[in-house]
Write a structure and sequence with these properties.
57% of the residues lie in helices and 2% in strands. It is mostly helical. A two-stranded antiparallel ribbon has the order 1-2. The chain is extended and about 70 Å long. The two termini are 40 Å apart. The relative contact order is 0.08.
Length: 174
């Protein structure tokens, strides 16, 4: 339970140190007569408050050999790329297929990234790319707040407002 939860939450394979650290929370929850459920609750609390869950850090691999300065450009690791791709396209962490591929350093192999993008775009979760990103980027998420002057636009209606939004969403989705 702990390993599966941490793998999904941390968006990477779980190390032995991760597992040992989280099991200490489980054991603390079970001590003094605590139930199995309370132990799992403590693990869940630890996972959800971990920086590995809360932040999508980018450590990368330095592009230049030798010791690079702290502000040097870095190439994303496969796991970092998987996380960024998944949050961009579907506003959620990587699914099992993407995470497994990235953990095996297979995402940057020729053709793999294109294949994953096509697979993910076919998933209904990718609609958040339109609704969460594009509509906000175009400032259309607040279209309901626009109140055109009825003297200048007498034919404007709530249906027309919904049609505007639907048309833009359909265009971007296509």
């Amino acid at each position: 339970i702990t390993e599966n939860l941490a793998r999904r939450a941390f968006r990477r394979p779980v190390t032995a140190d991760d597992g040992n650290s989280l099991m200490r929370f489980y054991e603390a929850g079970r001590s003094n007569g605590g139930s199995f459920d309370f132990g799992i609750e403590q693990v869940l609390t630890a996972v959800l408050s971990s920086p590995d869950f809360l932040y999508r850090s980018i450590r990368g691999v330095p592009l230049a050999r030798g010791s690079a300065p702290p502000d040097a450009e870095v190439a994303l690791t496969d796991l970092e790329l998987a996380s960024r791709l998944s949050f961009f396209l579907s506003n959620t962490g990587p699914d099992d297929e993407l995470l497994t591929l990235a953990a095996a350093d297979g995402l940057t192999k020729p053709g793999a990234l294109d294949k994953q993008v096509k697979r993910m775009m076919a998933d209904p979760k990718a609609s958040s790319l339109v609704t969460s990103f594009a509509m906000k980027w175009l400032n259309l998420a607040d279209l309901d707040a626009v109140k055109p002057d009825p003297m200048l636009f007498p034919e404007f209606s709530d249906q027309l407002r919904r049609d505007f939004s639907t048309e833009v969403e359909t265009l971007i989705r296509d």
